[in-house]
Every structure is written in structure tokens, then in C-alpha cells.
Amino acid sequence: MTQDAAATAATIHGRMSDHENDPSAPDYTLYRAKPRGLLARLRGQDDLDELRQGDGALGRPGRPAGTPGGWRDRITPKRVILSLLGLIVGWLLLSLILFLISAQIEQSKVDSAAKAALSGGSFPLTSANTILVLGSDQRPKGSKEPGASTSGPSRSDSILLMRVGGGASSRLSIPRDTVVNIPGHGENKINAAYAFGGAALTIHAVESLLPGVKINHLVEINFTNFPKLIDAMGGIDVKTNCVISKINGGYKNGGVTLRLHHGTNHLNGEQALALARTRHNTCNPRENDLTRARRQQKIFSAMKSKITSPSTFFRLPWVAWDAPKALRSDMGGFSMLGLIGALGTSGSPPTQVLRPSGVTTLPDGESALTVSPTTAAAAAQKFLKG
Question: How confident is the model at residue 73 (pLDDT cuts 50, 70, 90)?
Fold first, then answer.
């Protein structure tokens, strides 16, 4: 008789003997499991049996189906929701940490003279602050774009004032060819202040042009990292008229040839930067710096809309890391978050452009725009009340 047959016979005999000795004893069957071999354990047979027992399957004894502790009962709608909330919180926390680290690194790169020239502001979300946004015309080495500064000090390519926080919401763009009295250098185009003394001198020049305006914070656009931020967002949608321009000599010369149709265009980082830099539009040769300033405002508005869109949530860590690199500021991470919050809640106010009163010729022969003191004062008051 084999070992298995003997074990079976012993089991049946034990059951019958108990019943003969005590007829009132309940019937029961004693099962003696065959010892598990190493091969069965490696195959996961024990786990399979446990799973079957948990479901009460295949007629084997164990917990009935649905008994607490079964694997199916571990997945419930409540647990799924809590898990998703945990993932969302973790994603936001990761983005916040990356933003704060990146902002701290970039804050240390802002010129100390520029920081000293600012009128210390309060938290941008709860109190009104005046922010000066500057972009320089520095180009990569080998640039062939007309008017670009490829050697020596660069000039400010765009000058924008924003009034945000505490219910304030206004924008004022200053054309870069506007004549202003630059401290220590006399009358010149306002964009030359950046070449003479960087952001610090530009701050003094803007305040001398607009009576009553005190600049609290500075944001410098880094055109090298600007396209990376746009790409991290997944691109932006900008509504424009027809635009055909060649930047840095055009595509054939290693630059960018930009072609946009009338209507809404989806732009990647390189295209958005090219649009912001466009001075000469083949579609409309009559465009001037005022047109260029309006296009730049559209780009900023499109960026704002993209940041607050649900699709950006999935790209948030990348956007959080690249934003401070493209928008370097004297503000630390938490103040920058306050600024972003203020921009997000202030709507999209129209950007007023400082209107020139006339045209003049500078000693070097260049044409420049003049703004009367009355016009400058009126623009300043309207900006501060916004």
C-alpha cells in the first residue's frame, strides 16, 4: 500500500471508530494535507490556496466570499479617492519644492545694485506692488538680427510696469525708444539705461519719467531660458494678425523664420520668443514699436492663461523648475508665489502704452520718441489707480 493510500485509510478508520464508540458524536472528517514540497512553494501554490480559501472557492473550507480581509475588499471607492488625493497633494508638493529651490537660486543672481534701487514692497498677493519687467536685447553669439546687441552691454528690449496685489490691476508699457533723462548720462533712449547701468539705472530712469511711481520689485526675462518655459507648458495659443519675420538672420542663416496666419496660432518656445522679438513684419511694414509691445502683452496673457489651465497640472514640476530661470527676480520663492497668485486673481486688464507726444533726433542722429510731462503724469496716475 502506498503512503497516500495508507493516510487515506487511517483517516476513514479514525472517523468510523469515533462514531462507534459514541453514537451521539457528530460526524466529521479529518483531512491530513500532504506536506508541501519545495517545488510547490516556488510555484506559489500556497498563495493560490490562500486566495481560494479567502473567496470560499472550489468548495474548499475558508472565509466566505466578501469576508473582511479578502483582496477584493481592499479596493473600495473611498480608498481609491484617498489614494488619488494623496497623489495630487504629492504632485503639488513636489512642484512647490522645485519652484522654491529654483527661485532661491535665481534670486541670488540679481544684481545687488538693482536690489538697492528698489523701494521695498510688501507681499504681492495682499498689498499693491509695482513690478518692473525687463527684457534685454542680448542675443546668442553669431546673431544677425538687425539692431541686436551681440557684443558689449545690451539694452532693454521691453519695459513693462505691472501694478498687482491688494485689488490693484494695471499695466503700462514704455516704448524702448522713449527719450528720458538718464541720471549721469543726460537725455537718451530709455532702453540705453540698461546698457549704461543695468537694471538699477533703468529703475531710476523709469521713476524719473513717471512722477509718483516707485518700483517695488524687479523681474528680468532671460531670453535664453524663456523658450524652455513655454515648451514646459506645452506651448501657448496667441491670436495675431499675419506675421512673417526673420529673426537672427532667418532660417537659412541659423536663425528663425516666423510665419503666422491671421487668427489663433499655437506657438512653441522658439516661435513665442521670435514673435516677442519681431521688429520688421513683412505682412505689415508699417508696424512700429507700439505694435511690438502689444504683441508681447498678448504673449504674457497667453502664458498666464496656460499656467492656470488644467492641462498644465500634469506638467507642473517642469513648469515650476523652469519659471524662475526664465523670469529672474529679486523676490524669493514665496513672494513669487504671491505674485503669481495676484496675477491669477487680477484678471487680464488692458495694457496701456505710454503715448509719445512727438519725435526728436538725438545727437547721434537716431530718431526717438518724446513724451510731454503732462502725458507722463497722466499715464502714471492712471497706472497707480488701476
Answer: low
Beta carbons within 8 Å of 120's beta carbon, 6+ residues apart: 216
- Report the domain count for the chain: 3
pTM over 0.85: no
Domain limits for position 70:
35-74
Terminus-to-terminus CA distance in the chain, angstroms?
Answer: 102
Burial environment of residue 253 by CB neighbours within 10 A (0 to 12, 13 to 18, 19 or more): middle
13 and 100 assigned to the same domain:
no
Cβ atoms 379, 352 nearer than 8 A = yes
Rounded Cα gap, residues 42 and 29, in angstroms: 30
Return the C-alpha cell found at 175. Answer: 516704448
Cell of residue 340, nine digits: 503669481
pLDDT at 133 over 80: yes
Residue 115, Cβ density class (10 Å: 0-12 exposed, 13-18 middle, ≥19 buried): middle
Q: Residue 169's beta-bridge partner residues?
A: 164
User: Over the chain, what is the mean pLDDT?
Assistant: 81
Three-state helix/strand/coil letters over 220-247: EECCCCHHHHHHHHCCEEEEECCEEEEE
Task: Provide the 3-class DSSP secondary structure of residue 37.
Answer: coil
The amino acid at 149: S
Q: Which of 305, 259, 301 is nearest to 278 (CA)?
A: 259
- Nearest Cα neighbor of 222 from 157, 145, 170, 275 is 157
pLDDT at 350 over 80: yes
Q: Which residues contact 26 (CB under 8 A, 6 or more apart)?
A: none
CB atoms within 10 A of CB 241: 14
Q: What is the DSSP letter of 127?
A: S
10 and 59 both lie in a single domain: no
Rounded distance between C-alpha atoms, residue 272 and residue 301, angstroms: 12
CB atoms under 10 Å from CB of 308, counted, come to 12
Report the DSSP pairing between strands 243-247 and 236-240: unpaired
| Amino acid identity, position 208 | S
Helices (H) and strands (E) in the chain, counts: 12, 14
Q: CATH code at 365? A: 3.40.630.190
What is the pairing mode between strands 327-329 and 156-165?
Answer: unpaired
pLDDT digits (tens, 9 = 90+) for 314-339: 999 999 999 999 888 999 999 999 98
